[in-house]
């Protein structure tokens, strides 16, 4: 008696989702960093932030006359409780957005692909504005990374739609 063969499928191979997982890890990492920023801002409420920064610089034995360190301490000196509250609320809101995207992409949900395309595209004009104001390699790399993410997800959605 001859063995029955399984029918040969001529359909395309199902994508393994490695690209989605990589984007998900990127989004989850950014989201967790923003949670830490939000918690740090809350922890600094009702404290003299510039004095704390000066103490950290002294504890790390960094030259306080370094122009970068001096600039950081000066900027932190402008932080008041209202700005810290705004920073924490903004960080938590954006982290919730990133964590939602990351979890949805990790679970390979189609809605997460659409959601990520929409939210990432909506932030690209802000990134362009920041680059126009001051070009830095970090801003350019982040813009290119976000454009690549949108392009990849768009291509994946078009492939899987057919």
Structure description:
The protein has 162 residues and is mostly helical. Helix content is 76%, strand content 0%. The chain has six helices and no strands. The chain has helices at 18-43, 49-59, 67-77, 81-106, 110-133, 137-161. The relative contact order is 0.13.
Run of helices and strands: HHHHHH
Compute the gyration radius: what is it?
23 Å
Straight-line distance between termini: 40 Å
Percent of residues in helices comes to: over 70%
Total E-strand runs: 0
Task: Kindly report the average pLDDT value.
Answer: 85
Structural class: mainly alpha
Overview features:
mainly alpha, single chain, elongated, 162 residues, 6 helices
Quick overview of this protein structure:
This protein has six helices and no strands.
Which helices and strands appear, and what pairs or packs with what?
Blueprint: H1 18-43, H2 49-59, H3 67-77, H4 81-106, H5 110-133, H6 137-161
